[in-house]
Amino acid sequence: MSWQLRELTQRDTPRLAELELELFPEEDPWPASAFAAEIGQPHTFYVGVCSEEEPHYLVGYAGLAVLGPPSEPECEVHTIGVDPEFQGHGLGRLLLSNILAVADSLAAPIFLEVRTDNYPAINLYESTGFEKLGIRKNYYRPSGADAFCMKRPAQSPCPPPRRKD
Fold it and tell me: What range(s) does the N-acetyltransferase domain occupy (predicted)?
């Protein structure tokens, strides 16, 4: 199966809320209105993944916020999720790579929180350069689950390709 990435819009919010409810039922999943508010902000970037056969049917999503002054930006992963039916196909890595590219284009460090028992996500984050900074006790509500706070240091933007003369 081949996949297509696309920037998310307000029309995607019902499906995003549906996925959120399925993925995070005990963690106060975001409603469509929360996604609508996030997608509408000028400092956020939300991307989704669909199969090329059904380009309007989202199977995964990721959201990034760009914070701080333009001279010293920081980025924060707000959310990332993949429909359980499509997990294990590299879509989480594809989504994460896309938002990491945004942070890298700004030479910005990137932060996130992840449940301490979400081993697949922790392994994914560590494989892309994130390091654990500490634990946020009772971070997730209402479950009270702890979260690791993780950081990926700023990466130098890729230099433009050199022309062959």
Answer: 3-155
- Strand 3-7 relative to strand 131-136, pairing: unpaired
State the pTM of this model: 0.89
Q: Are 81 and 60 in contact (CB under 8 A)?
A: yes
Q: What average pLDDT does the chain have?
A: 92
pLDDT of residue 162: 58
Query: What is the number of structural domains in the chain?
Result: 1
Per the domain annotation, does 37 fall within a domain?
yes
In a domain, 157, yes or no: no
Q: Is 54 a catalytic residue?
A: no
Residue-range definition of the domain harbouring residue 60: 3-152
Report if residue 83 sits inside a domain: yes
DSSP for residue 63: E
Active site residue 52: no
pLDDT digits (tens, 9 = 90+) for 117-137: 999 999 999 999 999 999 999
Q: Is the residue at 163 inside a domain? A: no
At residue 163, the pLDDT reads 56
Of 125, 126, 139, 140, the active-site residue reads 125
